[in-house]
């Protein structure tokens, strides 16, 4: 599935006007490229170790930018390990917005020079700890249609 960064997005079983896409990139579409700081990468990987999921999906999302392999199944950075292609990451932003990124976003940054929008990077760096009460208060209320 391809969605441009910061566009509204709906996922199967999950619809909310608050959701904004980040990192839904695919072969055949240009994506923004650039550098990110190690601090941002560490924070993003940390949130993806055990991400809260309002809905769960069967199946694995493959990287279509990797030419043959579909991408790796895991990514490890600074001793934190993320499983790729299964979960999505929800990050609360300003004004009630919730960014949703596929877990593969860390692979896109690592291997395909993807750079996420500044406002998402700020939201990641100021995100409350995953599954903390402060986090859940800000991401709950996404309406599920399942
Ligand atoms: Zn790839």
What do you see in this structure?
The protein is built from 4 helices and 5 strands. By secondary structure, it is of the alpha+beta class. The protein has one domain. It has a 3-stranded mixed β-sheet with strand order 1-5-4. A hairpin with a 2-residue loop joins strand 2 and strand 3. The protein is globular, with a radius of gyration of 14 Å. The mean pLDDT is 93. The structure holds zinc ion. The site of zinc ion (ZN) has 7 residues, from helix 2.
* Helical segment count: 4
Tell me about the biggest sheet?
3 strands, mixed
The portion of residues assigned to helices is 10-25%
Derived structural class:
alpha+beta
Estimated radius of gyration: 14 Å
Shape: globular
Query: Spatial order of the strands in the main sheet?
Result: 1-5-4
Classify the beta-strand content into a percent band.
5-15%
Give the terminus-to-terminus CA distance: 20 Å
Bound molecules: zinc ion
- The total domain count is 1
Low-confidence stretches: none
Mean pLDDT: 93
Q: Order of helices and strands, N to C?
A: EHEEEEHHH
How many strand units?
5
List keywords for this structure.
146 residues; two-stranded antiparallel ribbon; 4 helices; binds zinc ion; DUF7919
In summary, what is this structure?
The chain is of the alpha+beta class and 146 residues long. It has helices at 38-47, 105-112, 118-125, 133-139, and strands at residues 19-21, 74-77, 80-83, 88-92, 98-102. The chain contains 4 helices and 5 strands.
């Amino acid at each position: 599935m391809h969605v441009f960064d910061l566009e509204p997005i709906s996922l199967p079983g999950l619809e909310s006007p608050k959701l904004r896409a980040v990192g839904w990139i695919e072969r055949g579409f240009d994506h923004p490229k650039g550098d990110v700081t190690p601090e941002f990468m560490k924070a993003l990987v940390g949130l993806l170790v055990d991400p809260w999921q309002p809905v769960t999906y069967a199946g694995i999302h493959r990287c279509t930018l990797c030419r043959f392999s579909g991408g790796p199944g895991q990514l490890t950075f600074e001793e934190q390990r993320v499983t790729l292609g299964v979960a999505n990451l929800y990050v609360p932003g300003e004004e009630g917005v919730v960014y949703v990124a596929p877990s593969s976003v860390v692979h896109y940054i690592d291997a395909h020079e993807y750079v996420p929008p500044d406002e998402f990077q700020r939201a990641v760096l100021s995100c409350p700890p995953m599954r903390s009460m402060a986090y859940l208060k800000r991401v709950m209320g996404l309406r599920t249609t399942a």
